[in-house]
Amino acid sequence: MAHDVFVSYSQPDQACAYELVARVEAQGIRCWIAPRDIAPSADWAAEIIDAIYQSSTMVLVFSASSNDSPQVRREVERAVHKNVSILPFRIENVRPAKSLEYFLSAQHWMDAFPPPREPHYARLCAYLKTQLGLQTLPAAGAPPAASAPLFDPTDMRHIERQLAGYIGPVAKHLVKQAALRAAGVDDLVARLAVELDTESQRREFTRRCRSGKSPAA
Question: Are residues 58 and 99 in the same domain?
Fold first, then answer.
């Protein structure tokens, strides 16, 4: 099975992992996850290693359980060895054990707590689309999209810094993707505000972005 993303998880987090795969695959991104994609009577270890090597990205469902999992640690080690990009999708407020920290210290993290997880899945999909160079296809019969406006680089950097204060390094990718569809700076800020979890965060983010806009915007 051809795929873009390998999903690593520990058994207690299987429900979350399969929910994540459903959301990601609905966006046209191909995933590999055990045991769904392991052929009957196949060698599990060999199948998993081959799947990791054939992936461009590993999404690690990170929790206290996966933190203690020797199997997860082996999968992460293999991914690092083959230069596969790793995105820890942290569903619990847990710091990595030393055995994992060695491999994950240079990685970007995406926090997926507190619930609900839907906004976090949406951010994950946006990140993966950017990483994989994918774009959402327009609906059948929809008119051609207008060319995206050019944004002042100072505005873009300011907005990216404000968003990164809430969600971390993935903000860079979200800003880049939203800019392809936004009609202007205010529309860009509005599109990015929905990535935040609470109304108070969205208001504060919007206020900070607008206070730093260039006069010509």
Answer: yes
Assign residue 100 the CATH number of its domain.
3.40.50.10140
d(CA 26, CA 217) in angstroms, rounded, equals 35
Q: Torsions phi, psi of 169, nearest 5?
A: -60, -20
DSSP assignment of 158-205 equals HHHHHHHHHHGGGHHHHHHHHHTT-SSHHHHHHHHHTTSSSHHHHHHH
pLDDT for the residue numbered 9: 98
* DSSP classification of residue 35: T
Neighbours of 11 (CB within 10 A): 11
Q: Map residue 92 onto helix, strand or coil.
A: coil
18 and 99 both lie in a single domain? yes
| Count of alpha carbons within 13 angstroms of residue 163, beta-carbon side | 25
Domain span holding position 164: 153-211
The model's pTM is 0.65
For the chain, the 3-state helix, strand and coil shares in percent, each to the nearest 5, are 50, 10, 40
pLDDT given at position 213: 56
27 torsion bin: left (phi>0), alpha (psi -120 to 50), beta (else): alpha
Indicate the range of 38-52, 53-67, 103-117 predicted with least confidence. 103-117
DSSP, collapsed to helix, strand or coil, labels residue 8 as strand
Tell me the three state secondary structure of residue 52: helix
Q: Are residues 87 and 181 in the same domain?
A: no
User: Residues 122, 162: one domain?
Assistant: no
Average predicted confidence (pLDDT) for the chain = 85
